[in-house]
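Re: the request from the purification team.
They wanted to know what the chain is likely to look like in 3D before they choose a buffer screen. I agreed to run a prediction and write the result into the notebook, where they can find it.
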Amino acid sequence: LLYTIKFEVAMAPKVQVSMDFGIKYLGSPSHGNLKFCLSDGEAIAANSVIVSYNSPVIDKLTTELLQTSLDVQDFSREVVQNFIESCYSGEPQKISKDNFGGMNKMSTVFEVSWLVDKCFEFLDSVDL
């Protein structure tokens, strides 16, 4: 006796989350639970699950090493903010000639390969 089971694999829909998602719920352990520590002593909060989804490095740091803050003092506030917004939206945010180097470096350090690709697409599309 032979049975055939047919099933379809559906991809999860792309989820877009507003940028304040991590900021709005800072008191909750599951929202705004990851701090990106800037050189000025300030920090930008983000949701570790959303950012980890895009970055295997951040995933390892938060799930295996249980880090709740990341030292990103080498990057400007603008670059860190754009990096986080890109992770939240799934689309590159505000890559420009001025911040290309920082965006590309941060995307490379945290191994966000799709964003590295988008940085180079941007580079190919502009006259330097």
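For the purification team: The chain has a mean pLDDT of 80.
Please add any questions underneath this entry.
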